[in-house]
């Protein structure tokens, strides 16, 4: 016997107004699924990409990839969870904007004591993103200096803290003095306000002309060229998002002329595609939080029915830290 759940669905691509609050039937969990009554849902820029159609998925569909809650029921093949467990996930099929939903069991992990539902929902996708960027894509070493764009955003503030904990000097780009203050308060070694400073020149100054071995760029087309120009010879450009739009028309010869550079376009899903990989990444993330090396900053909270306002705020670059949808 299934149950019903309020959930956000879109039937067409477009602005925030295309998100509709609907009541959906939720069936019993399948053999490999977990049914979760959700407490909080994390918002991310990728949700906007799917709403607008930049990233395509067959319509109609839900939105959202990360949330936390309590297990209602488990399918017969799920051995690591049981009803009543406090859980979270950061990489699921579309549809996290919902009160109750079924999620593949291998994507769901228990939340340790001391981490709240809101913190878990706010940190899973963003925190696991920082984990794979800093610990897997390019494994940062103490003493290195790196460049990360959008340092005051949801991913950025976790990255600033994680870099500091590793003994890494993070140079973060920001769009205002206020965001610079926030990034530095969270552990950024230096900040560059790209609205009135030349990023490449400042990186040269801050590194005594050496540039950086790796750039983490979640912005996309607006920063592509800048990022390449900040890299040392044989440096790595990590393009992990498109907040300003996708990078297109790339001439690979540019990588040669700028110093035999490397470029990668990684995704979280490829790094946590089994329960073992997800658990290992989540364990490291949770340990950073419970040891107080990372503090989860949630600066915006909205009820599910106000999701349009949440998307408008996120897209306008007016948010700092994480944004969550709260569910009773």
UniProtKB/TrEMBL annotation:
Which GO molecular-function terms appear in the entry? Answer: mRNA 3'-UTR AU-rich region binding; NADPH binding; quinone reductase (NADPH) activity; zinc ion binding
Which PROSITE patterns does UniProt cross-reference here? QOR_ZETA_CRYSTAL
Top-level taxon in the UniProt lineage = Bacteria
Q: Does the keyword NAD apply?
A: no
Q: Which InterPro entries match?
A: ADH-like_C, ADH-like_N, ER, GroES-like_sf, NAD(P)-bd_dom_sf, QOR-like, Quin_OxRdtase/zeta-crystal_CS
* A GO cellular-component term linked to this record: cytosol
Signal peptide positions are: none
Sorted UniProt keywords: NADP, Oxidoreductase
A Pfam family it matches: ADH_N
Q: Which residues form the Enoyl reductase (ER) domain?
A: 14-325
Q: Which NCBIfam families would you find in this protein's record? A: PRK10754.1
Protein name, per record: Quinone oxidoreductase
Lineage here is: Bacteria, Pseudomonadati, Pseudomonadota, Betaproteobacteria, Burkholderiales
The gene behind this protein is qor
């Amino acid at each position: 016997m299934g149950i019903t759940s309020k959930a956000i669905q879109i039937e067409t691509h477009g602005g925030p107004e295309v998100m509709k609050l609907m009541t959906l039937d939720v069936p019993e969990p399948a053999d490999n699924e977990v049914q979760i009554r959700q407490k909080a849902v994390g918002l991310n820029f990728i949700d906007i990409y799917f709403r607008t159609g930049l990233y395509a998925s067959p319509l109609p569909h839900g939105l959202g990839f990360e949330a936390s809650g309590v297990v209602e029921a488990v399918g017969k093949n799920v051995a690591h969870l049981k009803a009543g467990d406090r859980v979270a996930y950061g990489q699921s099929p579309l549809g996290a904007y919902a009160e109750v939903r079924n999620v593949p069991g291998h994507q769901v992990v228990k939340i340790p004591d001391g981490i709240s539902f809101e913190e878990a929902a706010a940190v899973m996708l963003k925190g696991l993103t920082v984990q794979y960027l800093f610990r897997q894509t390019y494994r940062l070493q103490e003493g290195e200096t790196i460049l990360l764009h959008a340092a005051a955003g949801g991913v950025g503030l976790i990255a600033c803290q994680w870099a500091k904990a590793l003994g890494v000097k993070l140079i973060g780009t920001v769009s205002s003095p206020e965001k610079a203050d926030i990034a530095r308060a969270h552990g950024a070694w230096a900040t560059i306000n790209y609205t009135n400073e030349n990023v490449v020149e400042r990186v040269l100054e801050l590194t005594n002309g050496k540039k950086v071995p790796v750039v983490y760029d979640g912005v996309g087309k607006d920063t592509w060229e800048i990022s390449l120009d900040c890299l040392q010879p044989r440096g790595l450009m990590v393009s992990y998002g498109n907040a300003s739009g996708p990078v297109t028309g790339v001439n690979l010869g540019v990588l040669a002329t700028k110093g035999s550079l490397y470029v990668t376009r990684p995704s979280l899903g490829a790094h946590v595609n089994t329960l073992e990989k997800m658990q290992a990444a989540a364990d490291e993330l949770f340990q950073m939080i419970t040891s107080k090396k990372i503090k989860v900053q949630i600066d915006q909270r909205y009820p599910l029915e106000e999701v349009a306002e949440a998307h408008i705020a996120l897209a306008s670059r007016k948010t700092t830290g994480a944004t969550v949808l709260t569910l009773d």
